[in-house]
Write a structure and sequence with these properties.
Radius of gyration: 16 Å
Structural class: alpha+beta
Number of domains: 1
Number of helices: 3
Strand content: 25-35%
Helix content: 25-40%
Strand order of the largest sheet: 1-4-5
């Protein structure tokens, strides 16, 4: 992890700044900092394929859950720090989500 990522991660520890990443971009208050809860940033585990198994370890720059008044997790909001345009960023997020779903399925089994 490079210095820009460390600086961004330290900045995102503050819930108000984290919420501002979304609220400023959208021009409206969509994410209330009081409803944010931390979620594990590191996804790690094994994925089995028909003839092989792969180990993975990925770390998101920022990930938080949003809880409703009745304490139900209703959304997951993520922030990724990029210095340049990265056209595969959407695919990277899908990979992170796939790893997370795989871990959830493993836990259920």
């Amino acid at each position: 992890m490079g210095r820009p990522d460390i600086t961004m991660n330290e900045c995102l520890q503050d819930a108000i700044r984290y919420a501002d990443c979304f609220n400023t971009a959208l021009g409206t208050t969509l994410v209330d900092p009081n409803t944010l809860i931390p979620i594990e940033r590191i996804e790690e585990g094994n994925v089995s394929f028909p003839r092989t198994m792969a180990h993975y370890k990925k770390e998101r720059d920022g990930i938080r859950g949003v809880r409703t008044e009745s304490n139900i997790l209703c959304a997951v909001v993520c922030v990724e720090n990029q210095n340049d345009i990265h056209y595969a960023q959407a695919a990277r997020h899908m990979i992170y989500d796939t790893f997370n779903y795989n871990r959830q399925l493993t836990d259920i089994r």
